[in-house]
């Protein structure tokens, strides 16, 4: 008959057969801990990089809005001066002809 108490696990000396198994489990646990730590460090690095990218995106969005406001302001000012810039011909790109020195 049992007294109702849970039985104690059979823990043997580290140099016995079961001790070798315990050593392997401890080594596996240590490898697992190292792997988890490496993954956590990598995740932190990725998160930091993502935060930098998000910050840059916000900055670019802000600069784009500012540029668009300035372009609109310039268009309105030119219209107030009756500059006629909207009807002006577009500049034509000039292509340089290659010299025929070889002929």
Automatic annotation (TrEMBL):
One of its GO terms (cellular component) is Ino80 complex. Residues 32-78 form the INO80 complex subunit F domain. Coiled coil: none annotated. Residues 1-33 are annotated as: Disordered. It is found in: Nucleus. InterPro entries: INO80F (IPR056513), TFPT (IPR033555). One of its GO terms (molecular function) is DNA binding. It holds the Pfam family INO80F. Keywords: Nucleus. One of its GO terms (biological process) is positive regulation of apoptotic process. Its main location: nucleus. This is INO80 complex subunit F domain-containing protein.
């Amino acid at each position: 008959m049992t007294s109702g108490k849970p039985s104690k696990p059979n823990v043997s000396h580290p140099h016995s057969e079961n001790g070798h198994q315990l050593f392997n489990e401890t080594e596996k646990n240590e490898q697992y801990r190292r792997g988890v730590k490496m993954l956590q460090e990598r995740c932190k690095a990725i998160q930091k990089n993502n935060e930098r990218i998000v910050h840059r995106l916000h900055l670019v969005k802000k600069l784009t809005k500012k540029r668009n406001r300035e372009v609109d302001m310039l268009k309105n000012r030119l219209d107030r001066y009756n500059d006629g810039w909207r009807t002006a011909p577009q500049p034509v790109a000039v292509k340089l002809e290659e010299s025929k020195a070889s002929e």
